[in-house]
Structures are given as structure tokens and as C-alpha cells.
Design goal:
Residues 2-347 form the FAD dependent oxidoreductase domain. This protein is α+β, with helices and mostly antiparallel strands. The chain has helices at residues 10-21, 36-39, 54-73, 95-109, 123-129, 150-163, 205-209, 274-282, 289-292, 333-348; strands at residues 2-6, 25-29, 43-44, 83-84, 88-90, 118-121, 139-142, 146-148, 167-169, 175-178, 183-186, 191-194, 196-199, 214-216, 219-229, 239-241, 247-250, 255-259, 295-306, 313-316, 323-327, 366-368. It is built from 10 helices and 22 strands. The strands form 6 sheets. It has a 6-stranded mixed β-sheet, with helices on one face. Bound molecules: flavin-adenine dinucleotide (FAD).
Length: 369
């Protein structure tokens, strides 16, 4: 099959990789600008979330479980700079909330053993795992929590995709048209026909579907995140999730991410707001004065895609045969993206999938105008 995948974030890159692995003739077009995947914090730890929606939880759980398979398929070791299960420490405002969450985690582990160890840690035990924290309360640790470097993961997926014969163009697709049989894709320099199309265009999905006469329940949300550097061996430090917006995600060689903001009213704006960034870092001062005072290396800005009910959707659009879409992955899309990409690649080959597909149908989000 000749397939064009438009959008090279986590969804498009994973779908392209698995389609190329299945022997398809795949071309991936990615504009890159604003991409959420490259800006993301990289926390993979859905089990401690208090979101009640079961459809979301089952998808996020399946996504977290799928990561080791993806790494194996990419020939990446399970402990690498791209992905590593370093564990997650979560804080709550009071001990009774933490105890409640501890019980929820134990219950969830019955069907999700990948959570690993679940331990209530004292402030001293937390400091042993993360020396620059100064907590005055207990925290909940789960060993299966991981951190992933979205940018490096995309690079690896695209590299493996190209080795499998995939074609890659860093460019904007400006137009998409259905033909008698198949689809026409246009960029500034290319006009080409394909049998099937996959749209992994994140928050920009409406731009390609509006001209085809469809409304899309997706909007952009700005996220800012700070990279700081400290002089410490941070390679195996766990991810820390304090109460509030600012999570702390350590990577190798002293690099630590702090963030991220959720700015609904800023939509697709990609400028750095220094005041918001300063406030975000200041919010962790009590938990870690050293991190709050550390040198800022960079600020990342990306655009998440949101739907009205905060759930992702993916699948074929009934009125547009051969056009598959995935969007609305919100703030947990690095967790759910790979399993969504893998599932889409399987559908294109009419293969059975683990996920219950009707739960995430695009029908409720994409309507003929
Ligand atoms: C600051 C921040 C922190 C986050 N932290 C986490 C986290 O800790 N854990 C987690 O699980 N998730 C996190 N997320 C969410 C996650 O990053 C996203 O949900 C996920 O990456 C979305 O992937 P995607 O492939 O759908 O879209 P994107 O990654 O946005 O990719 C879409 C791509 O399509 C391209 N594109 C759009 N239109 C066109 C076109 N016409 N032609 C060609 N290319 C086009 C764009 O340029 C972009 O590169 C975070 C997001 C942000 C912004």
C-alpha cells in the first residue's frame, strides 16, 4: 500500500514506523513547528491519576505498558536516555489523600502489574532517591513510572523508519483531496497520489479537514516548560509530581525539566512568557530551593490538542474512506501516542487490536458541516 502520513509527532512517527515495518510504501510529511511531542515533559505514569474516566485510563494504562515493546521493536535498550523506568514520586497536600491514593494504586496493580513496587516514602527516604529535594511530607513511589525524551524518541522512530525504506519530508502539507480512488497530497514542491492517508497533525487537524467540509472538536493549548542544569549525577533519579502544575523530570547529566503550564486561552501561541515561566519555577521553591535557583538552559513551548471532553480519538472517518485520523491526545499524549500509532498501523492492515476501537471513534468529534 502507498500511504502518506501527515504530521510527525509521536502518533505520526509511530504509525509510520510500524507501517514501514509491515512493508508499506510510506511517506511521512512533518512541518515540526509547535510540535507537542518535542516540547513534552515526558512523564509516563498514568496509574496515580485521579481522572475518573475509564476510557482514558484504559488507554493510558495500555500506552504505558506498550513502551517496553516499542523500545524492543526499535532496538533501543530498556534503560537509555530515550526511555527509562526511573519510578515516580507523587505528593499530596495531606497524608489522608496520599493514603487513599496508595490504596487506589494497590487496587490498580491487580490488573496492571507494570506499576511495579508501590511504597510510601518518608522525607528522608525521598531525599535518598532525589538528593536536591527538601520535602516536609511523605510521598508515594511507584517503580514502574518512566520518563521519555519525546524529541529523541521521534528522532529514533524516524531513523528506523528511513532504514526500513520510508520517505521523509520536513514540510507543510497545504492541501488534501479525495480522488475517485485514493487521495491527492499537496505541499509547496510535491503533488502526489496515495492509497490511504493518516493524519497525525495534533492540534492542527482542523486546518486540513475544514476545507473538506468537516468541523473538528479540537483546539490548541499552549504548554511551556523549563530545562535547568545542576551539577549532579541525575541519570537514575525518579520523576517527581508535586501537588500543582510543576512536575520535575530528571534526565541524564544533570538536565532536569520543570513544568508544564496549561494555557487554554493562548491556543497556538509559541512565544516564551518570562513571567509565567518564572512563577512556574518559583512554585517548587519550598520543595527544592536548589532547583528553583538553578540555571535555566532553555524554555520549550508546544501546543497540545484538546477535545471538549478531554479524550483522544482515532480511526477512519466514515464519510472519507481511506482517511485515518488521531488527535486530542491532550496532556497524556506521550503516554498514549505509541499505542495509538501501533493500533492505527494494525487497522490499516485489518489486523485485530488489543484496544476496544469503538470507545475512541472520531465520529463524536468530526462532523460534516
Ligand atoms: C509542554 C508539554 C508537556 C507535556 N508533557 C507530557 C507528559 O509529561 N506526558 C505525556 O504523556 N504527555 C505530555 N504532553 C502531551 C504530549 O506531548 C502530546 O499529547 C503528544 O505529543 C501529541 O502528539 P501528536 O503526535 O498527536 O501531536 P504533535 O506532537 O503536536 O505532532 C503533530 C505534528 O504535525 C505537524 N503538522 C501539523 N499540520 C501539518 C501539516 N499540514 N503538514 C505537515 N505537518 C503538519 C506539526 O508540525 C507537528 O510536528 C505534553 C505536552 C506539552 C506541550
Amino acid at each position: 500500500m502507498k500511504i502518506a502520513v501527515i504530521g510527525g509527532g509521536i502518533v505520526g512517527a509511530t504509525t509510520s514506523f510500524y507501517l514501514a515495518q509491515a512493508g508499506d510504501d510510506v511517506t511521512l510529511f512533518d512541518y515540526k513547528i509547535g510540535q507537542a511531542t518535542s516540547a513534552a515533559a515526558g512523564i509516563i505514569s498514568p496509574w496515580l491519576s485521579q481522572r475518573r474516566n475509564q476510557d482514558w485510563y484504559q488507554l493510558a494504562r495500555a500506552g504505558a505498558k506498550f513502551y517496553p515493546t516499542l523500545m524492543t521493536d526499535l532496538n533501543v535498550p530498556l534503560e537509555s536516555n530515550i526511555y527509562q523506568q526511573v519510578g515516580t514520586i507523587l505528593f499530596k497536600n495531606n497524608q489522608s489523600l496520599l493514603d487513599k491514593l496508595y490504596k487506589i494504586a494497590l487496587k490498580r496493580r491487580e490488573e496492571a502489574p507494570e506499576i511495579g513496587e508501590i511504597i510510601l516514602l518518608t522525607p528522608a527516604e525521598i531525599q535518598e532517591k532525589f538528593p536536591v529535594l527538601t520535602p516536609n511530607m511523605n510521598g508515594l513511589f511507584v517503580s514502574g513510572g518512566a520518563r521519555v525524551d519525546g524529541r529523541q524518541l521521534i528522532d529514533q522512530l524516524v531513523k528506523s523508519f528511513k532504514l526500513l525504506g520510508g520517505n521523509y519530508h520536513e514540510t507543510l502539507v497545504s492541501d488534501l483531496r479525495p480522488l475517485q480512488s485514493g487521495w491527492l497530497v499537496k505541499t509547496k514542491g510535491i503533488t502526489k497520489e496515495y492509497d490511504k492517508i493518516v493524519l497525525g497533525t495534533g492540534a492542527w487537524l482542523p486546518n486540513l479537514l475544514h476545507p473538506l467540509g468537516f468541523s473538528v472538536d479540537v483546539r490548541g493549548q499552549k504548554g511551556q516548560l523549563v530545562e535547568v542544569k545542576i551539577d549532579a549525577d541525575t541519570d537514575n533519579w525518579p520523576v517527581v509530581m508535586p501537588q500543582g502544575e510543576s512536575d520535575i523530570i530528571p534526565f541524564a547529566n544533570g538536565k532536569i525539566l520543570i513544568g508544564a503550564t496549561h494555557e487554554n486561552e493562548q491556543f497556538y501561541d509559541l512565544t516564551v512568557d518570562t513571567q509565567i515561566v518564572t512563577d512556574m519555577v518559583a512554585s517548587i521553591r519550598e520543595l527544592s530551593p536548589e532547583l528553583a535557583n538553578s540555571e535555566h538552559l532553555n524554555v520549550r513551548v508546544g501546543t497540545r490538542a484538546y477535545t471538549s471532553d478531554f479524550l483522544p480519538f482515532f480511526g477512519e472517518i466514515a464519510e472519507l474512506p481511506g482517511l485515518f485520523v488521531a488527535s486530542g491526545l491532550g496532556s497524556s499524549g506521550l503516554t498514549t501516542g505509541p499505542i495509538i500509532g501501533h493500533t492505527m498501523a494494525s487497522w490499516l492492515h485489518n489486523k485485530e487490536t488489543e484496544l476496544k476501537v469503538d470507545r475512541y471513534s472520531p465520529t463524536n468529534y468530526i462532523r460534516k458541516i
